[in-house]
Amino acid sequence: MAEAVFHAPKRKRRIYESYESPFPIPFCKEDTLQRDFKVYRAEIINNNVIVRNTEAIKQLYGRGYFGKGILSRSRPDFSISDPALVAKWKDAKLGMPILTSKRYQRGVTWAANLMQRQGQEESSVHKILEDYTKPLEFPKEDQQNNELNHKLDRDIENVERKAKLLVTNGDSVKPDTENESQSSSPENMECTECSAHDPLAKYASDEQKSRSSDAFGQTHYLTNGDFVTLDCEPEDCVEQKHLIFATDRECDHEYVLVQETTNCLDDEEETTDEKVVTKEKLVCRRNPYRIFEYLQLSLEEAFFLVYALGCLNIYHEEDPLTILKLWEAFHLIQPTFRTTYVAYHYFRSKGWVPKVGLKYGTDFLLYRKGPPFYHASYSVIIELVNDTFEGSLRRPFTWKSLACLNRITANVSKELMLCYLIRPSNMSDKEMESPECLKRIKVQEVILSRWVSSRERSDQEEI
Q1: Could you tell me if 348 and 308 are in contact, meaning their C-beta atoms sit under 8 angstroms apart?
Q2: Which candidate among 9, 88, 266, 424 keeps its CA 20 to 30 Å from the CA of 364?
Q3: Of 291, 269, 353, 234, which is closest to residue 106 (Cα–Cα)?
């Protein structure tokens, strides 16, 4: 198998992150390997492979640079915080997203428009959002945080003793048979499914329930990530709500800090003239329109994680897909998948990090270690040929188009590589329907370089 000579990659001047060991997990004892190895979950949505879990996103991108954030440039680190405000309040160490008042109101408007499109009346939407986005108090000192956390733990224990209901997957179910039948009805099941994606939907339903149960003194509030209904005083509920964000438990609400400005008189001014001073403060509120960051994997990356590393399971409509089903499904989604995956598997096995090269007119860009550390070294064009280097080319080039592509590649300090996948002449199409075909396909790399006649003459004259 012929092989091209790789040149040293060009390292980036500024690096803002450390290098993590890629998948698979580094060599260690067998028991440690089994304990640390995890299998993550992905889903096929609209012919795209999406990872939702936060820990899975962090591991898959950090250990091999698989995929990209749908809201980020590359690393999925999207934040709703305003960078200027984060720098301004960095000494406070609040640990919560910080927004401007204008941006927060924009989110409220989006939430109102969404609820109105769902068929709710304008007055009802205004009432729900007004109650949902009301200011909440938050502690500012570490000592207050510790005291509030201890108090929250004690209150939760009291809540669990008082609550005479079952909480399953965020659904409140009372032990009496009447409520059990109601909670298991199709209407309530649909409401639960909708509330899993829209926190306002769950909050709206709870608001309606609370209105009908005001006479009994029942209050809805959040504890341990679940909504429960208790016979308690409203003051207890308000105090609990203020303590929710101080814990690390995941919940359906997202709490943010909104910078608001207020005009007041300067108390230090001793003159008779009144002086108005503008002061800025942070107000804790709930975010009515949440934006989620997901990791989007290319088909080649997703199949490599499933087939080569075995650290990913892909589901379609809650059904897990086998390797053969994925091989067939990805081929239907992308007819050139089998060809591009063979090249992707080959370069990954040699230590390169292939990324989509669409912006430079090629199939792949090859990075050493990862995009944060090195610039891409090669732009790769992939072709599947037979033993005599003949076949129906995916991208037939003319001399003019090849020269243009080579000039573009040279202008971005890369080299153009033609990657030929050599398929044996006795290999049938039936064998290509399984990933086992990788064992019989050979790879040959050809690096193109522009020949400059004047430079050649000058080199000969020097000799």
Answers
A1: yes
A2: 424
A3: 291
